Amino acid sequence: MDLAEGKFAAFNLFIENTANFKTLGLSGEKGILKKAFNFLGFSPKGKVWEYDSIREEKISKSTVTVFNDLTELTGKVIPKNIVTVIEKIAGIQQVVVIRVEINKKTAADFTTFMDKNQQFKNFEEADLFASQASILIDKLNISRNLIEKIEYFDFLVEATGAGTWDWDMISDKVVFSREWKAMLGYSDEEVENSFNGWKNLWHPEDVPMIEKTIKDYIRWAGINIDLTELKENEEKQRVLVDNSYDIIYRITTDGKIDFISQAWTKLLGHSLEEALGKSFEPYVHPEDLKIVTDFFENIKKTKKRMEISDYR
User: Fold this and answer.
1) In the Cβ-directed half-sphere of 209, how many Cα atoms lie within 13 Å?
2) Is 21 exposed, middle or buried (0-12, 13-18, 19+ CB in 10 A)?
3) DSSP classification of residue 148
4) CA pair distance 5, 92, nearest whole angstrom
5) Do residues 24 and 132 lie in contact, with contact meaning Cβ atoms separated by under 8 Å?
6) Fewest CB atoms within 10 A around its CB: which of 5, 90, 115, 143?
């Protein structure tokens, strides 16, 4: 507002992955703003505005766009008679939109409302300000996205029960997760979060190899997963499947059999070896083959869960 020598100013940030934008900040004499908002019926601060193609077309042609009055900018979003009264209450006329662009798209804008007796003239300053704002907003977006990805990664790791360790050799910072220590049979306090804490856990036979390899890298990181429980569950499932009276099988989307239970041999007399990796079609009754092939085609097209049972 001060840079533009305006009377009021608003900062609008476009919402990521949408065409809508949100008014995040307002500047100016609070008493006048309160009167204007009372007449308007709401405060624009915090409001999400739906995409306005007319507005976007008007401001997308240059960094700084000057409107002779507020009605040129608001269009059909706010009735013209209301806008005219607000202009009188606030004592404004000319409106200037300073557009902030990132990757050739509008990322934000500073909308400045000039006093009715004043004209905007600081074009070069506004252009420079917009370019600096673009760098800052882009940097903040990158930081936010990075934090979100790290948090999501941490959530995934925690959900899988995996243990992680990380050694940044530049900062000499070492971090071991509690899960990683627990997998090795240690409490969180027993293993020091340091290089020596890690080195003390190396197997003696691997020390020469590790010390030689360390010199080639600036960062080491790893994820350890305890497969004991998973293997035990797989074994239980395999026993259940193999002892099931029903034939349980899996067919790939290209029609190849890639798993069959033992009941296949017991009930039909076919060996598992002759069927695995082969097409399912020779094993379906000729009169029912079209029903089954159509069923698979529907699954491939719709990607939906479907069922079929009446075939031989």
Assistant:
1) 5
2) buried
3) H
4) 13
5) no
6) 143
Q: In what order do the strands lie in the sheet with 219-224?
A: 173-176, 163-168, 219-224
Q: How far apart are CA 264 and CA 297, in angstroms?
A: 24
Strand partners, 167: 174, 220
d(CA 17, CA 37): 29
Closest CA to 44 of 66, 67, 16, 77: 77
pLDDT digits (tens, 9 = 90+) for 226-243: 777 777 877 887 787 877
For 300, the token pair is: 């491939």
Residue 169: is it exposed, middle or buried by C-beta count within 10 angstroms (0-12/13-18/19+)? middle
Are 98 and 114 within 8 A, CB to CB? no
Task: List the end-to-end C-alpha distance of the chain, in Å, as a whole number.
Answer: 78
Closest by Cα among 223, 287, 231, 281 to 257? 281
Exposed/middle/buried for 45, CB within 10 Å: 0-12, 13-18, 19+? middle
Residues in the chain with pLDDT values less than 50: none
Closest by alpha carbon to 57, among 99, 18, 87, 103? 99
